């Protein structure tokens, strides 16, 4: 072999090794103090990286401000630190707020693939004042309901801001090995510029395929543990209800709940719960609940069901079948068991067994008993890169009636820019004692292509007339639909217009109940303008089949959102077009809807969030107004520190002539360790006159409630 060939071979080999060389955080016996100061000895010795490159609004540019990231660990914890320079520190957007409310702020993020298997990741977001947000990402979907136990601190200085992070290994799942390899993407957002960057930089040819672009990190001799947690909680409720014009006190309710967690290994966790509740978060915000073709969707809020929720994501989810497992279908569980985690390198399991005390249908108690059993099972096997195949089984068993769904799903990476997703579910349902069982199926094949310049999506989906899922969330059945969308992206070299994304969407469908064809064709123009102003203008030419008739549903939609200043955020959506009045005797009409969100934060600790929802409908035949519906909601929060806040909500529903007042004091040390005291009242525009209720221009208090909760997370 000639010297030239040898040199070339060695250079090429070195280049390959350098391309896959992992990050090697510093092993320390002296952990840093998490206080937002980077003066600990560990940060003077720890390896650091820089060189974040943008992926929003465009790929591959140097970020406007420099970022240095430090990495360290000990046997039981991971540590990270960020030194974020900013030439205008007075314009850094940050607020002292409660968890999971920092997305409009400046922030940094640690995207951690704890198995380095390109299947899922944890995301740890921290704003410049150390306030946290976290999420999980799997199957192409980010779940922001996740709440993990970890610690952070941050502070703004004359050079920008500093952030420190401490992630206990007990809070995440990782491989049961002596040498543990994880994947990471470090991320930073500069709010006023709508700029986000990552290290390692995202490849424009791979688009936003985060999981396939992680940088490996190597850890040695991490402690392998058997996690044990207990989360006892006590709640007290005292309610008063109006009877014959007077508020009458009901019997006080005292509830005890207990959730426990046991780790067979660091990657396989068993959980059990008794009497889980919703009380760690406020009630659902009001939604327009009239003239609906399908039920409203409400997100899960109970901690037992939230953790590991990402395991139940599935390929080919669309607006027709958004979820095959939607645990809000388990209305009032007495108790439950859950097993989630890894079996070997490539196998993932997730299972839930819950007993529900609240039947879904009014006649179920009389005909079949009081309790419904929910068995749920998910198995997934990872393939090359972020590809996988899997299978689901879900069931709702209530004596002589049941609903069962089974079938495979999968994501297959075809190229570095494209993926193919599919699912094929079979359902069997016995709706009541007298009716014969019915069977149906749901099929979807979904192709996606994503690069810097172009995004393409093509979907074929079919749901038979008798397909049903009482564990998932289904908006429509008896339909076959073919959909395609193309989105070219343009990046003008101007300060006014930073990104232009026209989107053409073509949808053709057949309603099998009515044997009618329908369509939805839409042209949208997405603009990212100066600073962070975003607008979307869409026109839709469409029709919809309903009860053997076809209705014109064409219309216009305009969306605008912007963080105008550090203190003021605004978002508005306006829709106007043809519509259907969904009833046993449907008819066409015109309608409009308006959604406005306004957040004003005059100081770091005080935030006011105002929202307005409006919808109306006019019958086409005579232009008569059938309804108008307005919900006005105002939420004022004073955040004393990262642990304690006081919050008040006023919500008015004009259609139902109801007003809700809700007050809450909440102290959260870590997720699970909580003290809450709440008070709420419901008012209606009625009065008690001559032994009956009559309409009134004044509000009368109909219900009143006092709520107290205390819980403590004990971890061994």
How would you describe this structure to a colleague?
It contains 4 helices and 41 strands. The chain is mainly beta and 716 residues long. It has a domain at 22-220: Immunoglobulin-like. The strands form 3 sheets. It has a 24-stranded antiparallel β-barrel. Strands 3, 6, 7, 8, 9, 12, 13 and 14 form an 8-stranded antiparallel sheet that branches. The longest helix has 18 residues, at 3-20. It is globular and about 80 Å long.
- Poorly predicted runs are 1-18
Shape annotation: globular
CATH class of one domain: Mainly Beta
Ends: how far apart? 61 Å
Q: What is the number of helices?
A: 4
CATH domain topology of one domain: Immunoglobulin-like
Q: What is the average per-residue confidence, as pLDDT, rounded to a whole number? A: 91
Note the main sheet. 24 strands, antiparallel, barrel
Rg, Å, rounded? 27 Å
Strand content: over 45%
Helical percentage: under 10%
Number of strands: 41
């Amino acid at each position: 072999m000639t010297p030239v060939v040898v040199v070339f071979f060695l250079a090429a080999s070195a280049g390959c090794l350098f391309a896959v060389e992992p990050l090697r955080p510093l092993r320390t016996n002296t952990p840093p103090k998490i206080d937002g100061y980077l003066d600990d000895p560990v940060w003077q010795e720890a390896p650091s990286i820089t060189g974040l490159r943008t992926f929003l609004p465009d790929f591959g540019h140097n970020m406007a401000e420099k970022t240095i990231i430090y990495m360290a660990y000990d046997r039981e914890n991971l540590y990270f630190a960020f030194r974020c320079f900013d030439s205008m520190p007075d314009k850094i957007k940050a607020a002292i707020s409660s968890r999971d409310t920092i997305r409009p702020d400046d922030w940094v993020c640690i995207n951690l693939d704890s198995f380095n298997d390109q299947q899922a990741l944890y995301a740890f977001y921290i704003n410049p004042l150390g306030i946290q947000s976290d999420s999980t990402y799997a199957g192409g979907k980010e779940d922001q309901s996740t709440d993990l136990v970890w610690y952070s601190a941050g502070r703004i200085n004359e050079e920008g801001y500093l952030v420190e992070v401490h992630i206990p290994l007990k809070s995440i799942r990782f491989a049961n090995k002596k040498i543990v390899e994880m994947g990471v993407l470090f991320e930073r957002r500069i709010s006023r510029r709508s700029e986000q960057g990552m290290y390692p930089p995202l490849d424009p040819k791979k688009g936003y395929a985060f999981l396939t672009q992680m940088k490996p990190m190597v850890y040695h001799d991490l402690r392998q543990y058997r996690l044990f947690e207990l989360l006892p909680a006590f709640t007290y409720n005292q309610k008063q209800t109006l009877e014959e014009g007077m508020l009458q006190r009901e019997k006080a309710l005292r509830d005890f709940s207990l959730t426990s967690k046991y780790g067979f290994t660091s990657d396989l966790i068993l959980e059990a719960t008794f009497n889980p509740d919703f009380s760690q978060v406020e009630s659902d915000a009001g939604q327009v609940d009239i003239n609906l073709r399908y039920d409203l969707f409400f997100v899960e809020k109970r901690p037992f069901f939230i953790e590991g929720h990402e395991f139940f994501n599935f390929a080919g989810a669309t607006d027709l079948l958004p979820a095959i497992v939607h645990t809000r279908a388990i209305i009032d569980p007495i108790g439950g068991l859950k097993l989630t985690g890894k079996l070997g390198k490539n196998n993932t399991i997730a299972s839930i067994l819950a007993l529900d005390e609240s039947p879904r249908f009014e006649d179920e108690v009389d005909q079949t008993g009081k309790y419904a059993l929910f068995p749920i099972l998910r198995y997934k096997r990872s393939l090359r890169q972020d590809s996988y195949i899997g299978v689901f089984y879900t069931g709702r068993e209530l004596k002589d009636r049941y609903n069962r769904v089974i079938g495979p799903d999968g994501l297959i990476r075809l190229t570095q820019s494209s993926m193919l997703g599919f699912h094929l579910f079979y359902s069997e349902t016995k709706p009541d004692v007298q009716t014969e069982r019915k069977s149906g199926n749901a099929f979807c094949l979904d192709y996606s292509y994503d690069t810097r310049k172009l995004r393409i999506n093509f979907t074929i989906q079919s749901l038979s007339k008798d397909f049903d899922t009482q564990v998932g969330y289904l908006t429509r059945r008896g339909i076959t639909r073919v959909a395609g969308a193309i989105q070219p992206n343009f990046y003008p070299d101007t300060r006014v217009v930073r990104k232009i994304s026209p989107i053409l969407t073509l949808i053709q469908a057949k309603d099998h109940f009515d044997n009618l064809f329908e369509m939805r064709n839409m042209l949208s123009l997405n603009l990212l303008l100066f600073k962070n102003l975003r607008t979307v203008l869409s026109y839709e030419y469409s029709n919809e089949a309903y009860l053997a008739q076809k209705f014109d549903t064409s219309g216009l939609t305009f969306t605008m959102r912007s963080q105008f200043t550090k203190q003021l955020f605004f978002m508005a959506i306006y829709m106007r077009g043809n519509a259907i009045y969904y009833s046993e005797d449907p008819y066409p009409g015109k309608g409009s809807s308006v959604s406005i969100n306004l957040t004003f934060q005059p100081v770091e600790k005080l935030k006011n969030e105002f929202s307005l929802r409006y919808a109306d409908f006019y019958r086409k035949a005579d232009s008569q107004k059938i309804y108008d519906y307005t919900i006005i909601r105002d939420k004022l929060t004073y955040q004393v520190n990262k642990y304690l806040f006081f919050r008040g909500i006023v919500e008015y529903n004009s259609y139902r002539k109801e007003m809700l007042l809700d007050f809450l004091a909440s102290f959260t040390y870590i997720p699970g360790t909580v003290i809450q005291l709440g008070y709420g009242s419901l008012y209606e525009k009625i009065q008690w006159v001559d032994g009956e209720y009559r309409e009134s221009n004044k509000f009368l208090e109909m219900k009143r409630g006092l709520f107290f909760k205390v819980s403590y997370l004990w971890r061994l």
